[in-house]
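tool_call: predict_structure(chain=1)
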Amino acid sequence: MLSPLIGFALGLVMMVAVGWTFRRVRPQQIDTWFRKLQLISAAAYSLGHGTNDAQKTMGIVVGLLFSAQVAFKDFPLRFLHITTMAVIPLWVILWAHAAIALGTLLGGWRIVKTMGQRITKLRPYGGFCAESAGAMSIFIASHFGIPVSTTHTITGAISGVGATQRISSVRWGLAGRIVWAWILTIPAAAVIAALAYLIVHAV
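tool_result:
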């Protein structure tokens, strides 16, 4: 749960740094520059998404395949075999990336709209700072092999960016509901896993 706090701090620091650096530049000019720079920050954040979230998906798939072939000596489909937990087959990598891309394509817009428009009002330079802060947080975590949530990170970064304008710029009530959703996900996942286990063993 540290990732939102790290994202918040980095977003706040970047926003202050950008504001101080470009304090003498006309707002229209700043918007023009940062609309283009956002292409870079968005690409970096997307890359970070793949380096962390996709890795977690791959780990689960490889773990399941390895466990299955240990439990079942006559494991079917030779191409599914995993020789070691340290090697991830190319097809698993491509599958994980495709799953994340498809999920973002089908359901990502709702999250993007909530993050970019409802938590706080973001202008291009604010979006650049939030995306860059989120990307840096994820790259650092990925470098040290720490699994983090990209959604948690970007929520913190956007809140940090909004807080630099004034505290009331951030809809803290909405941010609080998002945090509660994160917390409730843990016991909800445990209940579903327990039910799946009981069903499988009952059959």
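agent: The helical segments are 2-21, 27-71, 90-118, 124-143, 150-163, 172-202. Proceeding to next step.
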